[in-house]
Amino acid sequence: MNSNVYTCASILGGDIGKLPIQVYKKRQGGRKRDKNHPVSQILGIRSNPYMSAYTFKELMMVHVVAWGNGYANIEWHTSGQNNGKPKALWPLDPSKTDVHVDNVTGELWYVTTLPSGETRKLKHWDVLHFKSISKSGLKGITPIQVIREEIGAQQSQKKFIGSFYGNGTTTGGILKTPSPLDKPAKDIVRDEWQKVNSGLTNAHRVAILDAGFDYQSIGMPLADAQFIETAKFGISEVAKIYKIPPYKLGLTDMKYSNMENLSLEYVKSTLQPIITNWEQEIDWKLFTESERRVFYSKFNVTSELRGDSKSRSEFYKNMIQLGPFSINKVLELEDEDNIGPLGDKHYMSLNYTTLDILEAYQLLKAGMKSKDEAGEGGDHVEGQGNAVAEQQS
């Protein structure tokens, strides 16, 4: 595998692997996290007896990066209270798994070859399938197909470098003589010159020229800055296909004014489409029809969206003052223990009110309407004005 593609697979696999996939249950007025649901167990703790949830997610993402498709056979509970719910996820070899549509029934099947050599036909609801961009919607296209020509150029470049330096010298040039030489004389001179300039042990020996010979160096293509730029172009092309920021692939000479914004852009443009793909496939395949009305899965990307401590504290302060966050909510986002029931309270500044009450209060304060002039309307205005007064007191 090309080193740049390997790095992209490592980056995306590691990022998807480390992000928690949490299961939520819808309820009136909001949602509640369900840590005991089988889906929560196999995606958050252990995907099968031999793989942690991290290893499974990383492997699936590496398969998507390298082959365009990540497949996993779903093993179901067949008895007990979890009957009909997923028990384990078993990765399938993407190079030996394919998608087929029955021409008669139109039904979708997965055909795979097991390590034992057995060919097995699996129903589509028994396979968790994560895919990259697709032409048919049924099977992903490996990005390597798109950049195969570029990767081939990089591989040829590496072979050239290896071959060039194989002789142990970076010197190249010609020997000039004032008079013509016949072939035997040329062979003797060439052999003597190569004895001095071949191999690492002779790399620094001094060559003595006689009989009017003059050595003229030939400029090295590898010393040309354009060669380095070509190598960088190869990295940037691979990074572009996988939507990976170039600095993650080692292009450190690029200058960034705000790394936090770059990280946020990476989450939004690169990880979020992948996450949405995973969440929709998980919800459709791992929950029963009745469960889909109540349960859903969601990646927790809070850790990826966190800024520095100063930015986070300012954000939390504003969210507490506006009312959406409680103290316990902030502590939860920071992976800290809560402070008990008092930390669940929400706060709101007394300086805030609605526009209609504010207008009524201003009218009452200006004396534009009195109780006798406005009748019932005046009563309404005065009542709203009093409500504001009570708030501010």
Describe the structure.
This is Phage portal protein. It comes from Paenibacillus profundus. Residues 371-393 are annotated as: Disordered. With 393 residues, the protein is an alpha+beta fold. It has three domains: 1-170 and 222-305, no CATH class; 172-219; 355-392. Helices cover 46% and strands 17% of the residues. The strands form five sheets. A three-stranded antiparallel beta sheet has the order 2-1-13. It has a three-stranded antiparallel beta sheet with strand order 6-5-10. Helix 4 packs antiparallel against helix 6. The N and C termini lie far apart (71 Å).
Describe how the helices and strands are arranged.
Blueprint (H helix, E strand, L loop, with lengths): L2 H16 L2 E7 L2 E4 L4 H7 L1 E3 L2 E2 H15 L1 E8 L9 E7 L4 E5 L6 E6 L5 E5 L3 E5 L11 H23 L7 E4 L6 H15 L16 E4 L7 H18 L16 H28 L8 E5 L2 H4 L3 H14 L4 H7 L21 H12 L4 H4 L1 H17 L1
Antiparallel strand pairs: 1-2, 1-13, 3-4, 5-6, 5-10, 7-8, 8-9, 11-12
Defining traits:
single chain, 3-stranded antiparallel β-sheet, alpha+beta, 13 helices, Phage/GTA_portal, flat, 393 residues
Apparent shape: flat
Write down the overall mean pLDDT.
77
Q: Tally the beta strands.
A: 13
Strand order of the largest sheet: 2-1-13
Structural class: alpha+beta
Q: Unreliable runs, pLDDT <50, ≥5 residues?
A: 218-225
**SS summary, helix count:** 13
Helix percent band: 40-55%
- Compressed to H and E, one letter per element, the order equals HEEHEEHEEEEEEHEHEHHEHHHHHH
Strand content: 15-25%
Into how many domains do the coordinates divide? Answer: 3
Rg from Cα: 34 Å
Taking the sheet with the most strands, its summary is:
3 strands, antiparallel
Tell me the span between the first and last alpha carbons.
Answer: 71 Å
